[in-house]
Task: inverse folding
DNA sequence: CACCTCATTGCAAACGTTTGCAGAAAAGAG
DNA sequence: CTCTTTTCTGCAAACGTTTGCAATGAGGTG
């Protein structure tokens, strides 16, 4: 016995006029007399009439909704992205439907299906780590629904994407250490099969090369968690030529390293300078404050949504996908200093 | 020229049969012959037919969608809640529409309106800090749409709610310090006009009373940010009878205090023990690890959604609202110790 | 052969809106 | 007073589905 939702028909019946007249009156159609308009509007207000968006969407075959498929909401970076998406969408009059894949392929497929069924006008996707088969995304293409990738792209699919310039940000971070006079720069990096790990390492190496500093593989580890870091640090500090600084693939790893270093009685940033990457949430609350790269998640969300809405409005079947690169910003804090 | 969405009618036309037959065939209605079923299903698969959820919702006047109004996605706690909501909703076949109020009243009102227009089947709300006027929420009630409050309730509205037991969690946190032999326990608390600030302070005071420790107003501050904390600490440490421990209304404030204390050359936990509250994200990465209260955001999201879906299914106009209290869990780490 | 029973299919209405077109009434023109 | 114009309103179809009911035809029964 739910509903009790007022419709245009109800208003029409109460007033003894037709639904079409009510519809026109509500949107100030010039054909309708002022008197009728007033009557209709007054009653609509009184009954708290809310237009049924579903009926509208069905009629116009557009739902004013955009779907988001995102790995995990609880990641600070992703929640920032969502925030950016939400803001732009809200201002453009779109509703946002958020689906988490939880990094699971099957769930990503299910989400895609649900969004398609919902007839979303466009989709924002950051694919899960598991995703290999792309049929579900081709499906979206086939249905001619604009799609924009953010953060994680799918190179086999022709679609717009908004990405972080991992290579360059890592380059800048490393360069910053080099300019401080550091020469033995360790790197705690991510797995090579992920863009994020590969590109950041490449940026790091390129900077070394450009500054004529030899790359020492003994200073490079695959370690990208808070827990991984201490082991690497302990190992390195036993070298006869230990590192004088460290660039980590993310902030948590950097923090793990910092604490390990401090526990060995060394001073940060004097003895060892440390630079992290992204997240940003922790950088200010640890001691010393962490020099790090801001990934601009909010901005990424905004950008991706703007592109998507543009595509929706253009309404063209074919277009040349753009790839927008958002530069990371190195924020120098207290964990790095001249030697 | 979008669309290219296949409909039941298209299938019907291709096969030279009626839409009703197609509809029935797709859902294995016993009236339809096996042969027809096969034909229909094959073609549906080939054309990648996706039922139009909008049409369905319109027909059934239920959208299988639940709306969420949440202050800010980027708060770790809230993003945990969303995660819980998403999981339960997904498993029950519901789509989740998320709206951020950004703690702004006007936006909350707009969100409510949008969700109403979308004909969501139910709403999960955590009201913004600004919200005083409740007309928009009464509106939801009037439309007979089930609503569940989480984390922040609205006592003027009769609805289910899921809350944290702030009082008791604060009581436990304080008791923990008392049992460690601490007697001069400072409290950095939130504003009194918010439940969260008031209840946690009351829990703190009750614990002191139960342990026959005198409440000293000089040890109680309204300070609930990382930046607020150091000032209070410096002030208190000049007392002739300074605190031996501290209970903060949230983790960031606790961390701000810890750093201020450490900067004064004092040792944590020996000289001063510290307990925080919630967030959890930081507790493990600072040094020493922070004793704190886990607020169980994910659990809260699950619980609220379960109740909501139950209400939706019951489909009763009148019911007695329940209030579910989720106990906070004190997690003892390294920042508190026997004196 | 008339009648009944199944099995299978189609018709039409409904959900809430919008909109082109036609219709009616009022007003203006001659 | 008739004809034309203007002003206002209503009809009906459409968006994609579902579903009660009617219709069709085949086969069975007496």
Result:
């Amino acid at each position: 016995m739910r509903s009790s939702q007022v419709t245009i028909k109800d208003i029409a019946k109460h007033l003894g006029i037709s639904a079409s007249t009510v519809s026109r009156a509500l949107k100030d159609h010039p054909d309708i007399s002022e008197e009728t308009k007033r009557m209709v509007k007054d009653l609509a207000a009184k009954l708290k009439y809310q237009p049924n968006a579903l009926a509208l969407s069905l009629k116009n075959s557009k739902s004013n909704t955009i779907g988001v498929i995102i790995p995990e909401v609880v990641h600070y970076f992703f929640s920032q992205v969502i925030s950016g998406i939400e803001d732009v969408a809200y201002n453009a009059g779109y509703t946002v439907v958020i689906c988490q894949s939880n990094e699971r392929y099957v769930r990503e497929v299910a989400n895609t299906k649900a969004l398609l069924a919902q007839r979303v006008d466009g989709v924002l996707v950051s694919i899960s780590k598991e995703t290999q088969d792309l049929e579900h995304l081709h499906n979206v293409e086939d249905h001619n629904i604009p799609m924009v990738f953010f953060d994680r792209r799918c190179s086999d699919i022709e679609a717009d994407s908004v990405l972080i310039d991992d290579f360059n940000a890592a380059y800048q971070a490393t360069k910053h250490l080099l300019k401080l006079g550091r020469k033995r720069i360790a790197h705690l990096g991510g797995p090579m099969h992920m863009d994020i790990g590969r590109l950041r390492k490449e940026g790091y190496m390129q900077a070394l090369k450009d500054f004529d500093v030899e790359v020492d593989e003994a200073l490079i580890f695959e370690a990208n968690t808070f827990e991984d870091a201490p082991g690497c640090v302990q190992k390195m500090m036993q070298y006869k030529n230990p590192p004088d600084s460290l660039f980590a693939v993310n902030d948590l790893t950097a923090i793990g390293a910092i604490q390990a270093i401090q526990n060995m009685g060394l001073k940060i940033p004097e003895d060892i300078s440390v630079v992290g990457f992204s997240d940003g949430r922790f950088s200010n609350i640890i001691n010393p404050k962490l020099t790090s790269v801001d990934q601009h998640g909010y901005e990424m969300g905004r950008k991706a949504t703007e592109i998507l809405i543009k595509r929706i409005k253009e309404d063209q079947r074919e277009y040349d996908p753009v790839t927008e690169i958002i530069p990371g910003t190195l924020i120098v804090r207290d964990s790095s200093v001249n030697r």
